[in-house]
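User: Can you write out an input/output pair for a complex, sequences first and structure second?

Assistant: Here is one pair. Inputs:
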Amino acid sequence: MVLRIEIDATRCMGSGNCSFWAPGTFDLDDDGLAFVKDLAGDPEDKIILSGQGCPTQAIAIWRDDERIV
Amino acid sequence: MTSTSQPIAHWDPMEQFAADPRSVRDPHPELARRRREQPVAPRAAWGAAGEVQGYELYRFEDCAAVLRDNETFSSESIRAGMSAVMGPYPLVGMDEPEHRRLRSLVAQAFRHKTLAHFEDDLVVPVVDEMVDEFADRGNAELVRELTYRYPVQVIAVILGLPRDDYEQFHHWASAIISVAARPMEAIRSSSELKQYLVGVLDDRRSHPRDDLVSDLVAADLDGERLGDEEIFSFLRLLLPAGAETTYRATGNLLFGLLNDPVQLDAVRTDRSLLTQAVEEAIRWEPPLLITSRVAVHDAEIAGTEIPAGAQVIPNIGSANRDETRWDHAEEFDLQREAKPVISFGVGPHMCLGMHLARMEMRAAVNRLVDRCPNLRLDPAADDAHIHGETFRSPTQLPVLFDVAA
């Protein structure tokens, strides 16, 4: 089951924390803000860690209809 | 150069340990007790206007919540304490919206280069040059001969300073880092360093190069640019923020590994473990244990009323050993399940240099292990230990290793 991930660009500060924990899933764009490059680029636990570790809580993650981060 | 130049050896990084006779060797047992018995503890604190009511926090969730909530908990009081040495715009002591504007601009300069370029072209050569000085000796004292020195030199290289100026830069950096032990020397050195940086900035404005100062000059967000004073504050902040923390954290990582030959062997055999070894080292012994915020209005933390104006002091060193988040939290165990720590802070002020710091730590240990076969703690080491209550790092790291014939 692939997760659904949303990044709130108004909250993102471009720390790069998400791409540290899940480099296959997240990257920073030219403006330094995070984006999802591959919804299944890392094991699920790493993607969830990225969401939980986001310093500004800009990442929301859903499994099916349940929000898990 | 100014005539105040003195040899680096004049500065003993260890004098800070002697400077405070009340200095605590190991605060962790007491921190564990407070996590259990008094997780939000009233204490005296010092703000810009003198003594204020303070509350120190010991549990992970409480510390993280305060650091994330920058609308309730302001960083401005840090600015008041730092501006004598850092100038008027220290990023760590600013609130929104000023903070976000400045951070976005300097972040642009910081990510201009890839970290891989920094590692191969800047950091590894700096480490190698320092290892060259002891590689044929079979022994070294790694705090004085490597960990204390290399992050400052990495900053000098990233700034693009001329090689002939490194020694003077080290001198200023050491004085600024030793601000608690020798405040007047730190303020004087900071002022001299600023005068020096005025010349560097002028030069890069007319002759841009491939270095951080040029990138700061060029940083542009929809027409917003960095002012000169903002650049000078940022460049000086790099010393405590980027050099001191990295030197201490590298020492703590090496201490953890050298005191557990099984884990050191694991890293020696599989260098990919270094990434998690770095995360574990900064969890187990973060270089800086406490930070502070001021409540801008009445608030509540874990059932304790926090009045407006009170200082709130998250103890990161305690939060990182919270038993409710980590098993056998007191042990250095690089195989433990990965979980985010707050050693780099969390929230809008989370460390701008965290990826650089991790890479510097990895690169230093990687090159040491490569170049010093059978690296081990000298069994004759006289009470080498991690020391301190606010900042923590090893007092010494005497090592032995085999010398290639």
